[in-house]
Design goal:
Blueprint: H1 2-33, H2 40-46, H3 55-61, H4 69-75, H5 97-104, E1 112-114, E2 127-131, E3 134-141, E4 144-151, E5 167-172, E6 174-176, E7 181-187, E8 194-202, E9 207-210
Antiparallel strand pairs: 1-6, 2-3, 3-4, 4-5, 6-7, 7-8, 8-9
């Protein structure tokens, strides 16, 4: 009988120990998985998608209005980088000529590129595109590709005889696609974040269409 009592006491202790450990595990899990509280002061920032910033306003707000526009544009582009020792495709050409040639002629190489006269197939000759309440005017400055975004129905009080519709001008830098269609990207001026341009160029049809209709 004494042995049975000792056994029962031991079993009782083990069960309570296990329950206690499980309780600790549950409490720790709830604590670490708890989402941080968002105060009213920063709730808007937490749920707010980055807006496109006028590059002139961007340079002024950053306290350096003398920044070169070319440098501003360069800073919006994704960086070419890789792991330590990465040399790029040019370093492979001498020893792997056939493989390099095969890759170079594929559409993989031309998937996403910088916008140049050699990579852009879309029409940027003062093309006007409408979506919602906004007008997108595509134009070129030399070898640069730009878009002017204005309100289709601007506030009359914001206009002057010489100012015309209010809007912003952005230099576009990246293009994706070279086979069936081309997708373009706008700089968000939040680091090198890119925003999809809302229109896509259909290469075979040679026309612009809303991006949502192609994906």
């Amino acid at each position: 009988m004494k042995i049975d009592r000792e056994f029962n006491r031991s079993s009782h202790f083990i069960r309570w120990s296990i329950l206690f450990l499980l309780l600790i595990v549950v409490l720790l899990y709830n604590w670490f998985s708890k989402e941080p509280e968002i105060s009213p002061s920063n709730m808007a920032d937490s749920n707010h998608l980055p807006e496109i910033v006028n590059p002139i306003e961007f340079s002024q707000k950053s306290g350096n209005a003398s920044i070169d526009p070319v440098e501003i544009h360069r800073n919006t582009l994704p960086l070419k980088q890789g792991p330590q020792g990465y040399l790029g495709s040019d370093a492979c050409m001498n020893c792997h000529e056939s493989e390099h040639a095969s890759w170079h002629h594929s559409y993989h190489r031309s998937m996403t590129q910088l916008m140049t006269p050699e990579t852009v197939q879309a029409d940027f000759d003062d093309v006007e595109l409408e979506m919602g309440e906004e007008m997108f005017t595509l134009f070129k400055k030399g070898k640069e590709y730009w878009v002017r975004i204005t309100d289709r129905q601007p506030d009359p009080s914001a206009l002057t005889p010489s100012s015309g519709p209010q809007g912003i001008e952005l230099r576009m830098g990246m293009v994706t696609g070279s086979h069936h269609m081309q997708v373009f990207w706008l700089p968000a001026y939040h680091g090198n974040m890119q925003i999809g341009f809302p229109f896509t160029w259909l290469i075979r049809d040679e026309r612009w269409v809303p991006r949502d209709s192609t994906f």
